[in-house]
Amino acid sequence: MRNWYGHGHGHALSGWGVGVMVIVMLLVLAVLVLAAVALVRHLSRTSKPVPPAAWGPGGVGPAGPGPAGVGPGGAAPPTAEQVLAERFARGEIDTDEYRHRLDILRAAGGPAGPATPPA
Questions:
Q1: How many helices (H) and strands (E) does the chain have?
Q2: Could you report the per-residue pLDDT of 55-81, keeping only the tens digit for each?
Q3: Residue 70 domain-assigned?
Q4: Torsion of CA 108, 113, 117, 119, to 10 degrees
Q5: Is the pTM of this model over 0.70?
Q6: Residue 53 is assigned to a structural domain of this protein
Q7: Which of 1, 62, 63, 114 is the most exposed place for a label (fewest CB within 10 A)?
Q8: Is 119 helix (H, G, I), strand (E, B) or coil?
């Protein structure tokens, strides 16, 4: 302890020494805070799955068309009846409209007429 106050061997912590020590401690504190922020940001990143409603016409999803109408990840896009059931479950359409649209979808291949069977 004697050396801190200039007693003993003549090495004292002068005004410049205190200033440098404060600056170094502030720099170390800033580096620790930045490292903690970077760690939190890195750990909070999550991969967000693509919602089923993101499917476009013909099975084209955000990642582009897949083989034979299969979207990203190898999953087939939802059918028209599944989409209609989801809209009914969310309350977007009422019971009468759901049944009417379901009858149209099931009658002769849908509103565009009979569909040609795939070759």
A1: 3, 0
A2: 555 555 554 455 555 555 567 888 888
A3: no
A4: 180
A5: no
A6: no
A7: 1
A8: coil
